[in-house]
Fold these 2 entries.
Entry 1:
Amino acid sequence: MKNYPQYSTKQKWIHWLTAILVFLVILLPLLKEHLAYYLGGMGNLFTLHKSIGVIIFFLTLWRIIVIIKQGLPKVLPKEEKFQRILSKSVQGIMYLLLLILPLSGYLMSGRSMNFLGLIQIPSINLPNHVHGFFHSVHIVTAYLLIALLCLHIFGAIYHHFWVKDNVLKSMLPSRWFN
Ligand code: HEM
């Protein structure tokens, strides 16, 4: 065991798996003109986008349950009150967005969705203006998430290379630092 606070192995797995999936789910629609060709068309591209979104939703619920059960390590010292509040707020809002984004994505469409081409998830029929509302929510929260992700990644890099503390290490496999 290392002498600095660390996230549990389960929390590290959920974090890095979510990071990869969020990267993909954002990249797919933003680069759809280029990627659709390689994925066999726009339909497949959006089936993948939606399916990854559903996985992120359940992964985030699981993450919240794990945090409630295990708690979080105190990676920032008590004296750094401002940074602690900033990092906790950014993390909390990101978890919220990772739940709102898939839900709004699901509710903005009047059509049923196909999870990985395996399971048909029926749509909820709502008035057109309500679908439109969730569409706007999806787009606005997507860009908010991208902004917060930049802040989050900048924070991790700043701590690792500038402050040279253990914040980034607390989320990496401890065997890397033997
Ligand atoms: C964490 C999960 C998700 C993230 C981060 C996310 C993010 C995004 C982003 C960045 C865009 C492009 C916005 C733009 O064109 O400017 C988008 C579009 C879209 N998303 Fe998602 N999404 C998620 C989940 C979902 C889910 C679960 C569904 C449906 C079940 C969905 C359906 C769509 C659709 C249909 C579009 C195209 C909207 C349009 O062209 O106007 N998304 N999403």
Entry 2:
Amino acid sequence: MKVSVVTRSGKEFIKGGLELNDSATVADLQEAIHRRSKKYYPSRQRLTLPIQPGSKEKPIALNYKKSLKEYFDGNSDNLIVVFKDLGPQVSYRTLFFFEYLGPLFIYPIFYYFPVYQFFGYKGERVIHKVQTYALYYWCFHYFKRIMETFFIHRFSHATSPLSNVFRNCTYYWTFGAYIAYYVNHPFYTPVSDLQMKIGFGFGLLCQVANLYCHILLRNLRSPDGNGGYQIPRGFLFNIVTCANYTTEIYQWLGFNIATQTVAGYVFVVVATSIMTNWALAKHRRLRRLFDGKEGRPKYPRRWVILPPFL
Ligand SMILES: NC(=O)c1ccc[n+]([C@@H]2O[C@H](COP(=O)([O-])OP(=O)(O)OC[C@H]3O[C@@H](n4cnc5c(N)ncnc54)[C@H](OP(=O)(O)O)[C@@H]3O)[C@@H](O)[C@H]2O)c1
């Protein structure tokens, strides 16, 4: 079969088109494009079906696993696909690794090194017990997330745009430095011993619960890289769609009860609003996929992220 590859403006992208055999998949087409245009490796390509000019319809994206014929109903004489360059890509593991590595290294710098001298504090710095526990808690959290990235999560997308590395690192690294600066500050006033114990104790329980939620999510997918979605079940997932985000938010709350800084609470508010938006989208997607029609299961009634608020 002959495939014409055009840009979104309708210009021919691959001169003369591509000749593929009739059983070719979308992945074969992507490889063929890559052979002709070395810069555009498969994960950088987005291929869609053409839409009528002026149409408000969303173009249908081609799934790399499917056969090309499935998209063209046997009308394989004149196959046209639209090519879009997604820009340089990195693997999801690389993205997550770099965003978590920053806070893991930046936070201890404020604890161990005399950085406050550069901000004009000359006196001896007395380290409070809560500051030491906060350091352990913080490092455990980011170490756990790196381990989960490599050994637990089964991502559906292989790659993410390189620009997300800069955006996400800015978010995590800046907040890491901002919170570390205030929690380790020479003028920091510790909370009571009881409050510290309640905060860290509650936070640690939530971190363990968060790990368990990630294991339950992992078990929804087979190791062969099938990136489909299932109804999460078990533990807190029986009550709330994004139990992993709920436990993430509460573990940060525990950290803040124990350390009590404005910087820490600002982070909780920002992180909660980000995760709430994602949770609403994930909840909608699961309800759409599991609508109870044509033999599909119906998504059970559940809170989205923060019962009893949402
Ligand atoms: N502090 C913050 O600002 C902040 C923000 C976001 C996340 N986090 C933390 O980072 C963790 C990971 O974040 P995330 O957004 O990557 O989590 P996520 O998408 O909800 O889930 C983690 C993994 O489980 C998969 N998964 C989710 N729902 C599934 C379903 N119904 N069926 C099958 N697989 C499913 C995801 O697949 P896909 O690859 O298809 O998504 C992903 O690989 C969070 O749980 C949270 O602890 C922190």
